[in-house]
Design the sequence.
């Protein structure tokens, strides 16, 4: 058949001019060079940008271009227009929230993943994507000394989610599925499912209850003790009251490292209660989870063998760029049952034989990127040894910072749990501390966030960046002292 | 303060050796070169790999490494171990499912995004990330001639989600929120929410009902007419029956381009019904949505001004690598109310003044990547002109392929709706066609998937790849004819 047999009433078209492979090489080098330059000068930018709402949009054209523009022009606009409105999460001066650290190998892993452009919804749609993910998640069971029930070789297994929020939602959905093998409301009767977490648990637990249609009020937020850990007596009491009301307790979330202060619930204590009342125990270790790569921090996970699910974020403290959450279940069936819908167009012989994992049945979306690649790049580039050293260095820096605060008569160490988050305040009232926070962030040399601890405003300084060093921590402490004394 | 003031009981640590900026440059060039080589030879790999379950994992070490390995070693293992198990979604021979196309500018946009490592949960956590997204989503309203209610300058607006599945879930949750301003089950009474879509709607609508706790059975799958479009009479009838039962119809999903055949519901027809019964109309144009960049395909969206929400996937047919779904709402308040939980540690003065968009309240997860960057790279690199040309070229190729099938006495054109998906079969029974499908995929030169249309097995050939050309389409048709005649 000859080419002339292509016919068109529309007029023939040959498609747009794509960037050629050679142009991709040139522009790819340009982007790599641009990033190298960015990393070399990252310390020179205000960590949090000094822009007002609308400033960035105002510098961009209101309408999309009809004609193409060149790649160097685009990259130049990133530099000139966007960079002034970027918060520099990779700056060594970024101490706010929790970090979203992006090590060089993880950035390159993301590039390989984007370039391959694989969509791994089924084993069948890219076997390497699925099998590498299963393997790496099993590796991490070894690395963090997680209990055996989370290995894919048994009834459980791990999967990469975008975030701990999605992992928590999956845990809630699997817990509901396990208990009733049907959804609430499905029969027209409210089964009265109730769940529990501490007042300090992450906001995503409440969001999950809302999304799942259980109702935000059906999540009981249990009081915490003086360590900001869940009060086990209060938890048991709440469950008893709910049972007496005819409700159905089904889920409890324990936190290893709360967002506010990095406090940790007793996983063993909550685990014993979850066993007694047949609750699904989900353990959220989003930030602190990585610490257990070091044997000396494994006390955090004591009792984890009682958990039905567990998650932590390599994109927070394990050198892997956002998004990358590792979510484990002890029994994959309720999760898969809650998530699976199988239309004809996804059927294939491998799935039918149940020989393979189809990760679409482990998550909210159908499609998925090849995210295990960047995690594999990180683990191999650093080795367990390097990741341990990363964690220990941050803890070392945070411990020193906490000691300086504690020893300084002008400051108060509000909470430090021994890991990498220090909550502190200058002596004075909340307003004064809020003014200090804004003044510090306006220096541009560092970026902190805040929280409320037992009714008191506290500044949060979290050390988890790739490029942090002793000099920067010292310089930041000097800045904090100087700005505080100048107010 | 001198360095000696750093003290440690653990023994001082200086952290791991990171890849230096210069090493990052060298390794970054290596990855770019590797991808160039991959693109140059992509046609030489079997599109779907010839591996068995466990093959890839079996070639990888069972345990994680304690010591680091070099970057070239990792990249070499990608080539030697992973590549044989990759399904080549970017190969011109990939015709299965819907494409997940990744143009060179989008890959480089993803690289910039990964390198900057910004987490845009709040405006405050990176103003450029939020403002560029809002702008680009407004641009797309212009580009696709979407109705004005979806512009951020009014009550509505757009947001990037990972996938149409998540967008549909958000639509269901917002619809529920709007109707009741409370979640079902919250009061202990089942409000009896029921929703509607056609039998041909995407599986994610059912998944959303399951996740939201509404119950899968509360989604009515309405029969389709001979065009595989929703039967409007049957829809009205179902609503009437549900109302008589005392149930509460609240949601309907219309599909512009079904997954099975790219058939399209009458958006206007469904819209009129949704108005009459006060249903939230969500329009899912995941694949076909991009077509309306061309004026000649805007008939697909006729009636869209009646929709409460809309989504399409630039990661399918708009040259942007996965993941990138654009989700629009006419009124952002019910979505934000359904999604918002505001803990102390996320409060900031900009959010309080309500001057800014915080996209965390528009999605399931809390954290988010800087995904608008790659979309902005694509739109600027191609211009509207280039994207139109991309769509027209694919439609041109698909129309010719459909004509060849139709004119061939050995084949049957089962369904072709005039866009870029051709559903066809060889004369013979379903088993014969299934054998043909497997035999074709085993040639390695192309990869097709299948569906069932009115009870008949049909092969699906979708043209949406970046690198497709006339020669490949012609060669693929020759292969199909040759393999079919050899069976």
Sequence:
């Amino acid at each position: 058949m000859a080419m002339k047999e292509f016919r068109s009433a529309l007029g023939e078209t040959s498609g747009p001019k794509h960037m050629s492979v050679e142009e991709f090489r040139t522009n790819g080098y340009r982007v790599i060079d641009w990033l190298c330059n960015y990393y070399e000068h990252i310390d020179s930018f205000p960590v949090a940008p000094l822009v007002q709402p609308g400033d960035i949009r105002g510098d961009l054209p209101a309408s999309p271009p009809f004609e193409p523009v060149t790649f160097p022009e685009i990259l130049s606009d990133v530099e000139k227009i966007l960079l002034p409105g970027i918060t520099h999460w990779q700056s060594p001066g970024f101490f706010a929230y929790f970090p979203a650290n992006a090590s060089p190998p993880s950035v390159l892993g993301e590039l390989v993943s984007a370039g391959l452009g694989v969509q791994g919804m089924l084993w069948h749609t890219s076997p390497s994507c699925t099998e590498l993910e299963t393997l790496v998640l099993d590796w991490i069971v070894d690395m963090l000394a997680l209990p055996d029930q989370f290995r894919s070789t048994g009834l459980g297994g791990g999967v990469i989610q975008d975030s701990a929020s999605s992992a928590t939602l999956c845990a809630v959905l699997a817990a509901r599925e396990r208990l009733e093998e049907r959804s609430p409301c499905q029969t027209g009767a409210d089964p009265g499912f109730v769940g529990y977490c501490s007042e300090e648990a992450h906001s995503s637990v409440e969001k999950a209850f809302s999304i799942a249609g259980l109702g935000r009020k059906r999540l009981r937020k249990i009081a915490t003790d003086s360590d900001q850990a869940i009060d086990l007596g209060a938890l048991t009491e709440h469950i008893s009251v709910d049972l007496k009301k005819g409700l159905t307790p089904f889920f409890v979330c324990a936190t290893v490292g709360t967002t506010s202060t990095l406090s940790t619930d007793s996983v063993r204590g909550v685990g014993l209660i979850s066993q007694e009342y047949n609750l699904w125990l989900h353990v959220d270790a989003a930030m602190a989870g990585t610490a257990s790569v070091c044997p000396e921090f494994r006390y955090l996970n004591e009792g984890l063998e009682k958990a039905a699910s567990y998650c932590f974020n390599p994109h927070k403290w394990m050198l892997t760029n956002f998004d990358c959450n590792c979510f484990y279940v002890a029994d994959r069936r309720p999760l898969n049952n809650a998530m699976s819908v199988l239309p004809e167009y996804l059927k294939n012989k491998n799935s039918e034989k149940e020989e393979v994992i189809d990760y679409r049945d482990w998550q909210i979306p159908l499609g998925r990127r090849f995210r295990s690649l960047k995690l594999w790049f990180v683990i191999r580039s650093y080795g367990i040894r390097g990741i341990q050293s990363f964690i220990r260095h941050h803890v070392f820096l945070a411990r020193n910072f906490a000691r300086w605060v504690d020893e300084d008569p002008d400051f108060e160490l509000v909470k430090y749990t021994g890991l990498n988050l220090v909550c502190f305040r200058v002596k004075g009232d909340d307003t004064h501390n809020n003014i200090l926070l804004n003044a510090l962030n306006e220096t541009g040399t560092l970026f902190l966030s805040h929280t409320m601890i037992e009714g008191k405003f506290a500044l949060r300084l979290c050390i988890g960046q790739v490029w942090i060093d002793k000099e920067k921590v010292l310089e930041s402490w000097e800045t904090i002292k100087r700005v505080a004394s100048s107010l």
Q: What stands out?
A: Residues 108-378 of chain B form a domain with the Aspartate Aminotransferase; domain 2 fold (CATH 3.40.640.10). Chain B has three domains: 21-86, 108-378, 390-486. The radius of gyration of chain B is 25 Å. Chain B touches chain A through 192 residues (CB under 8 Å).
